[in-house]
Write a structure and sequence with these properties.
ten-stranded antiparallel sheet, binds zinc ion, four-stranded antiparallel sheet, globular
């Protein structure tokens, strides 16, 4: 059973999950992982460990299955997510409960920058279904859909797949976002995300892509070269309240943005993740769900690791200028 342990100096939570290191491909070098064939693929060939896995949901383009090595364990009978102290009441920990899904794209060879619109629509609708499902779980506090593209971005199985984490804690970054956005709302009476949308649309120097429902732009205080945020134009706190029109518009937006990043940076390793309101907070005026894209083309040095302050070597305005002019067929 993985454990959630709290760093009592910073307040941050970590998951200690040694079971996950049992994965056979865990210590394989990046190049070997890159060339897994269909006949040697856990998601294609139904080999172990996914041979007996249950497909919880399936469409023409994707299927959903539980992660065999979950970081958060789904246990419908266990609700308590309370933390407790161990080692003579010194350190704080929790059982790591919630859920951990894999959303597998059926086509082995379709990697993220080449997803078709139907793949995106099926994947986003699947995310939505699981957010709604986990909302009902007594142990769920937070749901986050993520994608790892490229071994430098944490992808360990070459076959394209997203993951959905349901956790019994609010992730560290989300706690910080909520703290600051709530303070901004108390002082200014407005949603900071809506204000950012308004500002970026006016300044026009960081916009990468725009359609009726979404704006994609590089980040003023970017942590990585080409860091890009995708905001829905309509204020909504929760991802699961996305409409079907918005799902289609988001699919078009992501085809374009990932296509641009692919062309500009020659298929860079990257992650994307969805930030939405914790399950424990009702719909708010201050928090606005969004999707963040983190290209992983630079590594952190000692200063970044030691200070948490990032030195980004590419200007966000220059990256936007570069991406904006690349045309992608939606
Ligand atoms: Zn495969
Ligand atoms: Zn807003
Ligand atoms: Zn965020």
């Amino acid at each position: 059973m993985p454990q959630l342990r709290q760093n009592i100096v910073t307040g941050d939570w970590v998951v200690i999950a040694p079971e996950r290191a049992k994965r056979p491909d865990d210590f394989v070098t990046a190049d070997t992982v890159k060339h897994q064939s269909r006949t040697n693929c856990v998601f294609c060939d139904s080999k172990e460990p996914y041979k007996t896995s249950i497909k919880k949901y399936e469409t023409k383009n994707i299927y959903l299955t539980p992660n065999k090595y979950p970081a958060f364990v789904e246990n419908l009978k266990k609700c308590s997510s309370r933390s407790y102290k161990i080692e003579n009441e010194f350190y704080r920990m929790r059982d790591s409960l919630g859920g951990h899904d894999v959303v597998v794209v059926k086509d082995h060879d379709k990697d993220l920058p080449r997803f078709t619109r139907p793949i995106w629509v099926d994947m986003l609708n699947c995310f939505k279904k699981r957010y709604v499902y986990f909302d009902e779980h007594c142990s769920n506090v937070y749901t986050m859909a993520i994608y790892n593209h490229g071994s430098q971005a944490g992808q360990s199985i070459e076959h394209p797949h997203a993951q959905i984490f349901s956790s019994n804690i609010i992730p560290n970054i989300i706690s910080r976002e909520i703290y600051h956005t709530e303070r901004f709302y108390e002082t200014n009476g407005e949603c900071i995300f809506c204000k950012i949308l308004e500002h970026e649309k006016k300044e026009k120097i960081r916009i990468v892509y725009e359609n009726k429902s979404f704006l994609a732009f590089t980040v003023f205080a970017a942590r990585f070269p080409f860091e890009t945020w995708v905001y829905p134009k309509i204020h909504r706190s929760r991802f699961e309240n996305i409409t079907s029109t918005e799902v289609h518009d988001l699919a078009n937006c992501l085809i374009s943005v990932f296509g641009k990043l692919d062309k500009a940076l020659n298929d860079p390793p990257l992650n994307f993740f969805i930030h939405s309101l914790p399950n424990t907070i009702v719909e708010t005026d201050y928090y606005h769900w969004h999707l963040e894209i983190a290209p992983r083309i630079t590594k952190y040095g000692g200063y970044e690791m030691g200070s948490g302050n990032i030195i980004d070597i590419v200007s966000p305005e220059k990256s936007a200028e570069y991406l904006k002019d690349i045309s992608i067929k939606e």
